[in-house]
Amino acid sequence: MSGNSLGNLFKITTFGESHGKAIGVVVDGVPSGLKLSDEDIFFELKYRRPGNKYVSTRKEEDKPQIISGIFNGKTTGMPLAILIENKDPMPLHYEEIKHKPRPGHADIAYIEKYGYENWDYRGGGRSSARETVARVAAGAIAKKLLLLNNTIVAGYIKASGDLFIEETPNFDEILCSRESEVRTIKSKEEKLKEIIEKIRKEGDSIGAMVEIIVKNPPKSLGEPVFNKLKSDLAKSLLSIPGVVGFEYGIGFKSYKLKGSEVMDEIYYDGKFRFRKNISGGILGGISTGEDIILRIAFKPTSSINKEQKTIDMNNLKPTTLSIIGRHDPCIAIRGVSVAESMVALTLVDHSMLSGIIPKVKLTDQQSDIIEKRWSEFKEKCM
Amino acid sequence: MSGNSLGNLFKITTFGESHGKAIGVVVDGVPSGLKLSDEDIFFELKYRRPGNKYVSTRKEEDKPQIISGIFNGKTTGMPLAILIENKDPMPLHYEEIKHKPRPGHADIAYIEKYGYENWDYRGGGRSSARETVARVAAGAIAKKLLLLNNTIVAGYIKASGDLFIEETPNFDEILCSRESEVRTIKSKEEKLKEIIEKIRKEGDSIGAMVEIIVKNPPKSLGEPVFNKLKSDLAKSLLSIPGVVGFEYGIGFKSYKLKGSEVMDEIYYDGKFRFRKNISGGILGGISTGEDIILRIAFKPTSSINKEQKTIDMNNLKPTTLSIIGRHDPCIAIRGVSVAESMVALTLVDHSMLSGIIPKVKLTDQQSDIIEKRWSEFKEKCM
Amino acid sequence: MSGNSLGNLFKITTFGESHGKAIGVVVDGVPSGLKLSDEDIFFELKYRRPGNKYVSTRKEEDKPQIISGIFNGKTTGMPLAILIENKDPMPLHYEEIKHKPRPGHADIAYIEKYGYENWDYRGGGRSSARETVARVAAGAIAKKLLLLNNTIVAGYIKASGDLFIEETPNFDEILCSRESEVRTIKSKEEKLKEIIEKIRKEGDSIGAMVEIIVKNPPKSLGEPVFNKLKSDLAKSLLSIPGVVGFEYGIGFKSYKLKGSEVMDEIYYDGKFRFRKNISGGILGGISTGEDIILRIAFKPTSSINKEQKTIDMNNLKPTTLSIIGRHDPCIAIRGVSVAESMVALTLVDHSMLSGIIPKVKLTDQQSDIIEKRWSEFKEKCM
Amino acid sequence: MSGNSLGNLFKITTFGESHGKAIGVVVDGVPSGLKLSDEDIFFELKYRRPGNKYVSTRKEEDKPQIISGIFNGKTTGMPLAILIENKDPMPLHYEEIKHKPRPGHADIAYIEKYGYENWDYRGGGRSSARETVARVAAGAIAKKLLLLNNTIVAGYIKASGDLFIEETPNFDEILCSRESEVRTIKSKEEKLKEIIEKIRKEGDSIGAMVEIIVKNPPKSLGEPVFNKLKSDLAKSLLSIPGVVGFEYGIGFKSYKLKGSEVMDEIYYDGKFRFRKNISGGILGGISTGEDIILRIAFKPTSSINKEQKTIDMNNLKPTTLSIIGRHDPCIAIRGVSVAESMVALTLVDHSMLSGIIPKVKLTDQQSDIIEKRWSEFKEKCM
Q: Given D24, D79, D126, which is nearest A78 (Cβ)?
């Protein structure tokens, strides 16, 4: 409730600021017997890492260190604490904003809530998207655990500027967008690079829509009536900085649709199926076993190289501000990894609530299945 | 976690099925000293009640009975249990669907999760939107408490079929949509009635987009980083049956927008303000004090008078089904009240978390302010 | 957190006051498929009911009514609401204490916390032990579920006045104390009746120590490091009105004991066992599978027919008070049922957390096993 | 729920094992504006630290490092992560117990729950009392915050072996027991040293009873009916390794007492008071404002230098074990600090729930008051 924890049985607690010593996460509820290494975490972190010309130029190694909960290469059932040091903070860049809250950022909200005198203005402090590195670290564990049911979560940029990918691509294309510098499917990569490059040169930023597919999700996830799967997915995804919308299945275009247009035949082929999966894999708030399909909206980051009007906190008079930090022209590019992680974390928590992933202990066999699938998963798209 | 409770300090727990004895809610966390009567609850319930030709023809009085937590007309600080009896269930209508799960409904999800043999098929049982009467009952208390800060939550149907109200209307128009049989602003009422009437005659249904405005919200609501106000609003709104999307501020159109287009000047006029409130009243997940503006998408209800393809549970063979229950051509009409309630419940909980609404006890003066504003609130739009 | 809910996966929320319309409980987290009737609940309630000369003379039928969550005699997985009406409140008895808070009772604490003007003084309102009828109703469900593992919880009065039963009796003796009017083992019944009768005639009250044994508890219950089984048992038992102490295993006599005196050999007879079960079935906060043995202390109720010194709330001057309500000379007699219920509720919650009792659905076979054992359980001691 | 977090608004999450890299804690819910340094934490840690002949000979500096949540010497409202490195682990000592679970320890419970193959046998891993260093670190923050209301928590060893201090000493004596090597009041120090020294030489261990007094507690803490202050104190104290009992006020001797013997006059001297404070500062589960008085029982540690019978995990045959690690002859000596911390943590959480300590932000004035009182507090007993 104090805000920095998420989940019920599989629970993460994050800490750390953009320009503090480290970002970290405690993952409580990992069953014993899961093989896990720093490298497993790093595999996921590198897809979120800054470092090419389409994203922030901040240089962070993002080498994670697991400091508890592991013994002889396997989890013990005890909480895992993972630390990621901040290696390339540049606090000097932030002296100007010390007394000039950035419009569109959390600055003024933190100042008002926690007090100007207590405000960590260095790169937004805790409100920086740097915090999300902790989520991706935890998300790596969640993704591994989901492989027990062969469940895979993958996302891509579906729309940004005048790019809009109408049809949901096939799953392998989506998964392999992780190798793209602009995190979209191969056939649209050049188009998106042009868009981002143009925006970057203008010193501007652009929003985006991200689509996430969950392949082979367990059925029966979700607790009526308030902890529905759709509710908890919405919550976890909206907690990402810059996310301003969530929809699944037909989503917002529903206002134009008739019931007769969204009829979806139930049939049986050994299990209950839906002919068109119009509901995006969730009915009554509970997963049906069909692929889960959801979309989120990222706003354009407010950090742009254009003069912005704000307040000087020293005298409460109008002033102007030009952001000079290192920023992402389109935060959604690195945001896809974060969104995948939030979905994975939510699915694992609900899988434990429903008894589908063991909460306490993995058998040796389960552990081996996961490890094998994890190897295959890592090798995909190469 | 078991799914039927929502909230932290101001917590509701609901129970009851569509065709059971009663629907009910326990509201835990109401401070002592609030004047409250069955009539206060009923005032809100009547805006959700079925009964005109644009909504379900089910006849329910929806007279609530508070059975605990009140003494001498005021709350005691103890939990309030509120019961609303089911007076007009028609179980016979549901004999057909007993073995024919309705496509697009929660039926199959409940059958799979809880077992066909344990399934309360009468009108969807717990998954029926009838359950939401409990939320509106609790929402009435939340709405009253919000008046301590003069905060009002109001919504309307913004889009359905070929109606789309681009500009957010002024707040009084929105609030007074509660007197409309189709729950939209006066100037668009005829248009929407035509749309609904046409759909109803076709035996079809239609989706809708609902916009909710919070006037005078307290600032500083929301807990970084997971219990952001936007996250908890998304969760509570997505828990409503039929809701498939949530957005606030610029929402899903963000993918087409540049940072330079959404710059929003901060200024100071005795308090910190935003010139255009582009962020919809929430920055960094925390309320800024500007009006909160959000939208949700309702899907068209799957209960239509057209033949649908499904499975016969007796033999797992294909069959067809024509729904003959009493249903809403556009669930969003009555859904507006439910959505307002979910927003109000979330705001009160966060107000208590932030110390803005007292958790334990109202002073006599606070109690009187609320009662006076409540009278005024009830008389509006008459 | 708002205080009226307990449990994580198996969660109860209670409501109602001593002299209000009803006492009730919502039980959220009961798996589907459990056979359950009003009579099952009543079976347990009658062991807590007032009505003989050793306990309160208040006359309450305590006929429970399950109003949700049941369909065709079985649970559906949805929350169960259970109501127990108050049939014999005597509010007139309480006019005197309206302005005279009873020493040793919760009165003054409620007045200070929630306001004198909002205080439900009728029999202590919510702070009355009448509230515990809701716990026993929920406890009946918990006890049924525990039978899946053949686990039985039973308690008895171990000490009161100059009675002290040193050795823990055999389990059947303990279980059959439920048929005793003074809730102790047969061989000590006369002794305890004399003690209570004497106290009753003096218009006084007496404390007691209750011992609870859990026969065949599942092993591996308890979550390190804060949600240990011992922690959660302590919490749930201390929540009972009048309970002022908890211990398990060697408990408070430990200060006199050496490590060498409490050594307890581990051996293996198909499973890991402890020779003497000195630790009372819990090690490291986790159940070992040996019987759980714990004790709680009940204070003498403060409601006695002797003049007590208190404050007149009208003028804050000293005054005196003689309680004239109907009260228990030894609250522990009826408290044993309540304590058993709290233990059973805690064990079921932890069993679900550890995956030992299914959280979502019972199979038909599991359902039948429980029903058969429940019949046997009810017939014992007759 | 996953076991490693405690608290609602003021929440701690701990991690780390006895012989891992570090022990740590995340403290979520510290209001902004609190002055806080590594030294403040260390001040409390040193009272728990091993290092004299009456306690373990393990050498740990226990220098804490705050790695988040602080900016310019004050808290920012963001979570504080605190790390304490393990400098003196001696894993070699533990090779024997690798396959010989120690009787009376958590070993067998962990092996059964999490799997022998996943068991961190090094000094008990997570079940070691070394984990409690994290609690004392967090407790230092709680103790500072409590000074806002001038509340101080202090404990001492009340009984061990043939020492029993009948009367509760005056508060300064109790507080200054922190300077004693055996953590009891000055006048009984020699006696207790003799007892411990004798036990140590015998290679044995001894239990103890610890009494904790809360001076100037806020009134009105505690939430009916399950989150009573007594319930939450019991839970947090029972979570300490080795604690097997909790009582407050008259506690377990209640079974011998009559209601007439525990009558306690209410009077008014500007506030409501109790003449004898028989209830130990808590009535109806809510603090009365009188001193809180509670006691806990520590068992003798099972780590003794005497041969113990156990199982060889390699063949499930009986074997013997002589513990050779470094251990405390009386864990309660260092346990007093831990117990004080758990009480302080619980009180701060409840103070926030009741609005008595601000959850979000301290004013400058509040911050200064706390700092001044903290200086005075640290200087006491010198």
A: D126
Q: Does the interface ipTM go beyond 0.90?
A: yes
Is the CB of residue B157 less than 8 Å from the CB of residue B333?
yes
Residue of A12, A13, A80, A112 best to disrupt the D interface, most CBs of D under 10 A: A13
Neighbours of D269 (CB within 10 A): 7
Q: B368: which 2 tokens?
A: 């009187």
Cβ-Cβ contacts under 8 Å between A and C: the total is 21
Tokens of D377: 């507090």
**How does DSSP classify residue C192?**
H
Token pair of D123, please?
């000094």
Q: Which residue bears the tokens 């389109």?
A: A330
Query: pLDDT tens, position by position, for chain D (382 residues)?
Result: 679 999 999 999 999 999 999 999 999 999 999 999 999 999 999 998 777 778 777 777 889 999 999 999 999 999 999 999 998 766 556 777 789 999 999 999 999 999 999 999 988 899 999 999 999 999 999 999 999 999 999 999 999 999 999 999 999 999 999 999 999 999 999 999 999 999 999 999 999 999 999 999 999 999 999 999 999 999 999 999 999 999 999 999 999 999 999 999 999 999 999 999 999 999 999 999 999 999 999 999 988 888 899 999 999 999 998 766 667 899 999 999 999 999 999 999 999 999 999 999 999 999 999 999 999 999 999 8
Of C106, C256, C304, the CB nearest to D161: C256
Q: Shortest CA distance to C151 belongs to which of C200, C91, C218, C97?
A: C218
Give the separation between CA C180 and CA C197, rounded to whole angstroms: 14
Name residue B44's amino acid: E
Q: Determine contact, residues D78/B224, Cβ cutoff 8 Å.
A: yes
**Whose structure tokens read 């967090």?**
D138
Residue A101 · residue A313 · CB < 8 Å: yes
In whole angstroms, give the CA distance from residue B3 to residue C79. Answer: 9
Range of the domain at B41: 5-379
What are the angstrom distances between the C-alpha of D145 and each of A96, A116, D79, D212, D361?
33, 21, 15, 18, 12
- CA dist C348 and B55 (Å) reads 43
- The one-letter amino acid at B129: A
Q: What is the number of alpha carbons within 13 Å of residue B21 lying toward its C-beta?
A: 12
pLDDT above 70 for B323: no
- Which member of D8, D224, D358 has the closest CB to residue B355? D358
- With a CB cutoff of 8 Å and minimum separation 6, the contacts of B234 are A231, A234, A235, A237, A238, A246, B246
**Gap between the Cα atoms of A121 and A107, Å rounded:** 7
Dist. CA D274–CA D293, nearest whole Å: 14
- How do residues B252-268 score in pLDDT, each as one tens digit? 999 999 999 999 999 99
Please count the structural domains in chain C. 1
pTM over 0.95: yes
| Residue A18 CB coordination number (10 Å) | 22
Contact residues on chain B for D353, CB-CB shorter than 8 A: 9, 359
CATH of the domain at C54: 3.60.150.10
Contact B112 A272 (CB under 8 A): yes
Which chain A residues touch D86 with a CB distance below 8 Å? none
Beta strands in D98-248 (DSSP E): 152-160, 163-164, 208-215, 243-248
- Which tens digit of pLDDT belongs to each residue from D271-287? 999 999 999 999 999 99
Q: Is any Cβ of chain B less than 8 angstroms from the Cβ of A166?
A: no
* Of the partner residues D109, D243, D301, the one whose CB lies closest to the CB of residue C284: D109
CA-based nearest residue in chain A for residue D358: A114
CA distance A71 to A63: 20
Please give the Cα distance from C9 to B377 (Å, whole number). Answer: 40
Contacting C residues, span 87-146, partner chain A, CB-CB under 8 Å: none
What tokens were used for A89?
A: 């903070």
